[in-house]
Amino acid sequence: MDFTKLTIREINKNLKEKKFSASELAGFFIGEIEKKDKDIKAFLSNDFALAKKQAQGVDEKIKAGEEISMLAGVPAAIKDNILIQGMKATASSKMLENYVATYDATVIEKLKSLDTVFLGKTNMDEFAMGSSTENSAFFKTKPKDLSKVPGGSSGGSAAAVAAGEAVFALGSDTGGSIRQPASFCGVVGLKPTYGAVSRYGLIAMASSLDQIGPFAKTADDARVVFEAIKGKDKRDATSVNYLDRLQEKGLKGLKVGIPKEYFIDGMDKEVERLIKAEIKKMEDAGAKIEEISLPHTKSALSVYYILMPAEVSSNMARYDGIKYGFSTHGQNSGDLLSVYLNSRAEGLGAEVKRRIMLGTYVLSAGYYDAYYKRAQQVRTKITDDFKKAFEKVDIIATPTSPTTAFAFGEKTADPLSMYLADIFTVPINLAGVPAISIPCGDVKSMPVGLQLIAPWFYEETLFKAGEEYEAIR
Amino acid sequence: MISKEQVKHIAALARLSVKDEELEKISSDLSSILDYVAELNEIDVSDVSPTLTANFEGNVFRNDEEISQDLEVAKRLVESAPDKEDGYIKVKAILK
């Protein structure tokens, strides 16, 4: 049996019917990683002994006739900025190269209670800052044909699912870090409503934007994982009681808005043609397509590159060479200030330092009103754009990225060119709405993602539309 | 445009030591990003309230009471520090 083709529900059914055991399943994926990952390099670290032990636990439950959860025995990959107690959590930074997590993230606690099997921790851009996973302090991840970047920052998680090294993966999305790599690697990726999933135990980047979400093969698999990890958590004050918005409507009668600002000059023409053809298929299936406007789309990237670095500069202050992580403390020369200055200078990579300095600048005396406050005001306008649009339509469809995956090194020299890769994903984080990227075909044999955006808490609309679209694409 | 002097000042505020030969590149990178975001100056934001939080439920409060902590976790936290003694984290002397 080809385990890489099975959905989560199929795995669950087979386990319950004893067609195969959780240990066999875990063993298969461990074998796939051993075989493929020396080339792909999706994983930073693995603990296969732990994975096998978790799988055995599931088999014992099945043998004893106990009920098992939908995710029991399902092998998963976890982005390396999410803490699993006792395992390394490096966030792909030299700063945390030897850091071992002291506690479980809430999402990990939830998955552990459901007996999910953890295959390992995945590569990423350092501290989730980047769009190609090239900013990892350790190595590059090379998905599929090995010639193009996997996207980022959650490139390892996307590549692992795409290569059949895991059934699903968790990533984090601050400005597109789940959806853009999902698009580049040809898998499904969900950025949930802000506050839907607890951020406790996620190494913070920009706290008003960060959300944990799943990578999966299908919209339904993404639904199963999202249902398992969502919910209010008293340890994350920004998490909310999730409001279940039931959605009976599939594509038939669904009002789909197409924002004209997302079809811009400089966009790959073939990507544009493919997206429009796929939207036409949704129309043929009964959806009502309507052109809409999100007038402040163009400004979203500017807002993002003020607010995000500001929050980064604050969150990264904790890496001081004192409490944990890389430190020059042991080098006998120097005073306390030099421990701060040198530990941070040596432990952090160029992009991280760039964002810390940018954030420090926009928050500094004399510049706060001109940059930070103005960006917060334009953020309100961007959110209002979405509110107005959702008075008219149920869902918004756009390309996830203006291009397919780019070449290694293509955008590393000029930070701004790398930032532009996130132009269609960033507005969603600023507004806090949920969005999913669904594979919708290939251009020159590279995957393209269709981004569906829903109002706050309407994830179910995304899953339902996504599922029906998957059936007709 | 951010000058090299300004880069030095920002780096000091951010507690990052920067080598002199890095100043040029940092100043040009930061300047090009700030030039890009300057487009926001063209947007009318009068009477627009800033988004202060993405939180839907407003501030979350709790009583100011002692919360008992798991001592095992506390031990593991101190263990992560580069230098420690008797459950305390050691730092360089700050008083002469």
Descriptive notes:
- The complex is a heterodimer of chains A (473) and B (96).
- Chain A is α/β, with parallel strands linked by helices and 473 residues long.
- Chain A starts with 7 loop residues before the first helix and ends with a helix.
- In chain A, helix 2 packs antiparallel against helix 3 (48-63), helix 7 packs antiparallel against helix 15 and helix 9 (297-315) packs across helix 11 (350-363).
- Chain A has a domain at 3-229: Amidase signature (AS) enzymes (Alpha-Beta Complex), CATH 3.90.1300.
- Chain A has helices at 8-16, 22-40, 48-63, 106-113, 155-162, 179-185, 219-229, 269-284, 297-315, 336-347, 350-363, 369-392, 415-419, 426-431, 459-472, and strands spanning 43-46, 75-79, 117-122, 168-173, 188-191, 211-216, 255-259, 288-292, 395-399, 435-443, 446-453.
- An eleven-stranded mixed sheet of chain A has the order 1-3-2-4-6-5-10-11-9-7-8, with helices on both faces.
- Chain A has 15 helices and eleven strands.
- Chain A is globular, with a radius of gyration of 21 Å.
- By secondary structure, chain B is mainly alpha-helical.
- Chain B has a domain at 4-42.
- Chain B has helices at residues 4-13, 23-37, 71-79, and strands at 84-85, 88-89.
- In chain B, a hairpin with a 2-residue loop joins strand 1 (84-85) and strand 2.
- At the A-B interface, helix 9, helix 10, helix 11, helix 12 and helix 13 of A face helix 1, helix 2 and helix 3 of B.
